[in-house]
Amino acid sequence: MTESINSLLSLGGRVIIVTAGATVVVTDILETPDQEFVACQAESSGRLHYYSCDVTKQKPLNEAFENIFRDLGRLNGIITAAGICIDKPFLEHTWEDVQRQQAVNETGTFFAVQHAVRHMKERGIKGSVVMICSQTARHVSPGHQLTAYAGSKGFVWSFARNLAHELAPDGIRVNTISPGYIATTMNLSIAARRPDLNRIFNEAPPMGRVGSTDDLKGAALYLLGNGSSYVTGLDLVVDGGMGVSSGNFKSTL
């Protein structure tokens, strides 16, 4: 083998931006990071950085990326993970609901990726773009009412496919990860208002459990590293089997 398994999965020496061995830059709308991030940063030996950024506003987004490029000098990859989820009946969605969700999930994703790609192309970097999509881009999520959210993730899915084709000659790869039910702060906050969702989270996936953020780490590492150097335009589904069976699960909500 020309490369070891470790080298194919290593991000050593690379700079990766995450919007919500590599040098990792995390952006989030909060002025200061939460305590979990602070604890991770203390253990990172200077390889974890935080920049406050509202991805729905052009000037703060531009300034955040300018500061990142100034401070760190280069960028090898980006994961766009910022997103909001509005769960309510279609007829109850307001104009403000849809615009706010599109501003984060669509516009923020588009222009964060644009900043990253421009930097890569100007420096001839063969980088990797990974966008967090969702199972809702392909099928319904039992127990939820996600018309606007699903539409916004459908945008991410289509955007990534088109961008992968456009950037392939530059050696910049573009892929998505589509999680199923994952125990994120966003999903848990929805379940706190509707406790029966916890049952669906654990019963609807054929694997019989809700996913954890740890289940997404390997997927992200693979798509960012050299192990996926011939992979672009892929949607890597991490959903416990939901994609093959969601239509068979009947929610009582």
General description of the model:
It comes from Aspergillus pseudoustus. Keywords: Oxidoreductase. This is Oxidoreductase. With 253 residues, the protein is an alpha/beta fold. The chain has a single domain (5-238), classed as NAD(P)-binding Rossmann-like Domain (Rossmann fold), CATH 3.40.50.720. It has 8 helices and 7 strands. The chain has helices at 5-8, 35-42, 58-72, 95-123, 147-167, 185-193, 196-203, 214-224; strands at residues 15-19, 23-28, 48-52, 77-80, 128-132, 173-179, 235-238. The protein has a 7-stranded parallel beta sheet, sandwiched between helices. Helix 2 links the parallel strand 2 (23-28) and strand 3. Helix 3 packs parallel to helix 4 (95-123) and helix 4 packs parallel to helix 5. The longest helix is centred in the middle third of the chain and has 29 residues, at 95-123. The radius of gyration is 18 Å and the shape is globular. The model has no long low-confidence stretch (mean pLDDT 87).
Describe how the helices and strands are arranged.
Layout: H1 5-8, E1 15-19, E2 23-28, H2 35-42, E3 48-52, H3 58-72, E4 77-80, H4 95-123, E5 128-132, H5 147-167, E6 173-179, H6 185-193, H7 196-203, H8 214-224, E7 235-238
Parallel strand pairs: 1-2, 1-4, 2-3, 4-5, 5-6, 6-7
In short:
The protein has 253 residues and is of the alpha/beta class.
User: How do the strands line up in the largest sheet?
Assistant: 3-2-1-4-5-6-7
Write down the overall mean pLDDT: 87
Multimeric status of the protein: single chain
Percentage of residues in DSSP E strands: 5-15%
Separation of the first and last Cα atoms: 52 Å
**What integer value in Å does the Rg equal?**
18 Å
Please tally the helical runs, counting DSSP H or I stretches of 4 or more residues: 8
The residue fraction in helices comes out at: 40-55%
Biggest beta sheet summary: 7 strands, parallel
Report low-confidence residues grouped into runs of 5 or more. Answer: none
- SSE topology string: HEEHEHEHEHEHHHE
Tell me, what is the CATH class? Alpha Beta
Number of strands: 7
What overall form do the CA principal axes indicate?
Answer: globular
CATH architecture: 3-Layer(aba) Sandwich
The CATH superfamily label reads: NAD(P)-binding Rossmann-like Domain
What is CATH's topology name?
Answer: Rossmann fold
State the domain count. 1
What structural class do you assign from the helix and strand content? alpha/beta
